Amino acid sequence: MSTLRNTVQLIGHVGNDPEILNLESGKKLAKFSVATNESYKNAKGEKITDTQWHNIVAWGKTAELVENYVPKGKEIGIEGKLTSRSYEDKDGVKRYITEVVCNELLLLGK
């Protein structure tokens, strides 16, 4: 059961070209968003599509794969863990962000 703790699996489309950062430590970081869609019918029988956006970060070799093979619009599958952090913006307001740290990447579609 320990492998079920804090595991996220998503299949969706990349919403923007990934931002690639080469850190001073020599590590590579990729940041991007993924959209997932869920469809259902409302009380009137109309089809409704609910789109959720997820912030994704990838490190090291996974970030290199993202840099080379994952453009905007690409359908991908990811597995990772959910993390939350906070920071202060330029106005001193505390902001919170939740991200999925990608451990595995699957390239889908064409």
Task: Identify the notable features of this structure and list them briefly.
5-stranded mixed β-barrel, mainly beta, 9% helix, 110 residues, OB fold (Dihydrolipoamide Acetyltransferase, E2P)
Brief digest:
The protein has a single domain, classed as OB fold (Dihydrolipoamide Acetyltransferase, E2P) (Beta Barrel), CATH 2.40.50.140. The chain has one helix and six strands, in the order E-E-E-E-H-E-E. It has one helix at residues 60-69; strands at residues 8-14, 19-22, 28-41, 47-59, 75-88, 94-107.
What does this structure look like?
By secondary structure, the protein is mostly beta strands. It has one helix at residues 60-69, and strands at residues 8-14, 19-22, 28-41, 47-59, 75-88, 94-107. It has a single domain, classed as OB fold (Dihydrolipoamide Acetyltransferase, E2P), CATH 2.40.50.140. The chain has one helix and six strands; from the N terminus they run ββββαββ. The protein has a five-stranded mixed beta barrel. The chain starts with 7 loop residues before the first strand and ends with a strand. The model has no long low-confidence stretch (mean pLDDT 92).
